[in-house]
Amino acid sequence: KVGWYNAVLQPAFHLPYPDDTLAFVVLSTPSMFDKALKPFVNKEWLKIIRDPVDQCVSHHLSHVKEKFPDQKVDVIFDYEILPSRKPKFLAQTAAHVAGAAYYYQRKDVKHDPWGKKKIYGVCIHPKYGGWFAIRGLLLFPDIQVPFLEQSAPVDCVSTEEKRIELLEQFNFHWQDGRYRDIIEVKEKYSEEQKAYFATPPAERLRLLGLTQEAR
């Protein structure tokens, strides 16, 4: 429910819907690369304009909207920002309140070792660890669900030591991706997918077999 999200954030970040409005957080799993992105690029390569992943997600969520012709469906993507430069929604907070992934933050560590350093939080999924992404939010403004019960996310990094290790790796060594394996995972990115996301965006099209001229 939108109210679960709004309840844990300052008013500046609230979503402008009644508290009982139904919302879905959209995640992409490791298999998205082979099952969705590559087929999308192969089919649409002449039309690729900016970011293939963003366009692929947009393409598939537009199909979801088509499945509900009698319903108003609002979509917010993870990369969208307001004129104030604030994100349109805080993806990790949304995933946490929806029960999709646990958002580990500094406040989850009792004995804080970081002093005045800025420490960012990170979501961990019980099945995929850090090998997933939060892609968007689907909102159904005309559907109110007052009796929907909230499910807590799975606390899969439960020890103080592991939480410190997670936040250390994510904040200071995020490039090597070790934080993603803070728990044992059932599925992770393929080597091809790792290479794709490790490549600067301007050079990614070449990895997918596309040239800049095709944009």
UniProtKB/TrEMBL annotation:
GO BP terms, alphabetized: cobalamin metabolic process
Q: Any keyword NADP?
A: yes
EC number(s) recorded for this UniProt protein: 1.16.1.6, 2.5.1.151
Required cofactor(s): FMN; FAD
- Tell where it localizes: Cytoplasm
Which keywords annotate this record?
Answer: Cobalamin, Cobalt, Cytoplasm, FAD, Flavoprotein, FMN, NADP, Oxidoreductase
Checking CDD domains in the record gives:
MMACHC-like (cd12959)
> Under the GO molecular function aspect, what terms does this record hold?
cobalamin binding; cyanocobalamin reductase (cyanide-eliminating) (NADP+) activity; demethylase activity; FAD binding
Q: Report the GO terms under cellular component.
A: cytoplasm
First and last residue of the signal peptide: none
What family does this chain come from, according to its entry? Belongs to the MMACHC family.
- Protein's name in the database: Cyanocobalamin reductase / alkylcobalamin dealkylase
Q: Organism, per UniProt?
A: Cochlearius cochlearius
Where is the organism placed in the taxonomic lineage, from the top? Eukaryota, Metazoa, Chordata, Craniata, Vertebrata
